[in-house]
Amino acid sequence: CKSISQLTRALVAKSHRVGRTLVRELLHRQKFSLQSNQKTREGDSHPDRDAQFRHLNESVRAALAAGEPVISVDTKKKELVGDFKNGGREWRPQGRPEQVRVHDFLIKDLGRAVPYGIYDLASNAGWISVGMSGDTSAFAVQTIRRWWQDIGQARYPRATRLTITADGGGSNGSRVRLWKRELQRLATEIGLDIVVHHLPPGTSKWNAIEHRLFSFISMNWRAKPLVSYRVIIDLISATTTETGLTVHCELDSNAYPKGTIVSDREMATLPITRDPFHGDWNYTIHPSSNSNQSS
């Protein structure tokens, strides 16, 4: 990025008679402004990208119309816990900025916060479990379990299925065996079919939770150092919008070790029905008592 001074020197070197003030005015006239990079490109799109979105949206609309629960899930960016700089600005008395550490080195006793989120489409409500361990499928499904136990089953007492939209990667990825096994255990516990639709590759930012929940959490805690898990939970819980968003947040202090292996034999026993269209992205996981199975 060239500064005003650098641009001025470059123009003078080409025999233009300009000063910094004129260069600044010319940039403003041409609608130029200082801007940072914007993360919008997620790689080449899959040829079935649009078809998958249509398939996903049709399923979601049908479930909502039937009064069935639909949730969007994902992991928010992990955050260092401690007196570290948090991006953004906030109003403070002049000359009294928040004092934070110069370097962002992990504080071993505090670690990283792992916020796994659920956004309930029909209720415009969020749930965040803040983990202290690994971002694993077991943690992801435990968050869904806690949401269902505490809120979901009371909100949807006549539910026959739970529809989940999720990114194609990470702890809830389409190829992650542990994600499917843990969801199957949950399906058996709550007695519901669990319908899963993964977003096509390279489209994670289009997941509803990203722009209906996570973005507002980021705005609510901008420029506020996340000095403790209590502060993180309070800031997330205080997130709201003019459209009435509410967020419940709790700490999950359980340990979720990485590296759990689900064998081919175990996968073959899971009662999963795969959709005719991209069964790797769209599938229904049944309670163990359901006889409809397809591996």
Summary tags:
elongated, alpha/beta, disordered C terminus, 9 strands, 295 residues, Nucleotidyltransferase, domain 5, single chain, nine-stranded mixed β-sheet, 2 domains, 8 helices
Low-confidence stretches: 99-103, 290-295
Quote the CATH topology of the largest domain.
Answer: Nucleotidyltransferase, domain 5
What summary fits the major beta sheet? 9 strands, mixed
Order of helices and strands: HHHEEEEHEHEHHEHEE
Distance between the termini: 53 Å
Measured as a percent range, the helix fraction is 25-40%
**Which architecture of the largest domain does the CATH hierarchy give at level 2?**
2-Layer Sandwich
Q: In CATH, what is the homologous superfamily of the largest domain?
A: Ribonuclease H-like superfamily/Ribonuclease H
Protein name: ISAzo13 family transposase
Pfam families: DDE_Tnp_ISAZ013 (PF07592)
Describe the protein in words.
This is ISAzo13 family transposase. This protein is an alpha/beta fold and 295 residues long. It has helices at 4-13, 20-29, 49-65, 137-155, 177-190, 208-220, 229-237, 264-269; strands at 70-75, 79-80, 112-120, 125-131, 161-166, 193-198, 246-252, 272-274, 282-285. It folds into two domains: 1-33, no CATH class; 49-89 and 98-285, Nucleotidyltransferase, domain 5. Strands 1, 2, 3, 4, 5, 6, 7, 8 and 9 form a nine-stranded mixed beta sheet that branches. Helix 4 packs parallel to helix 5.
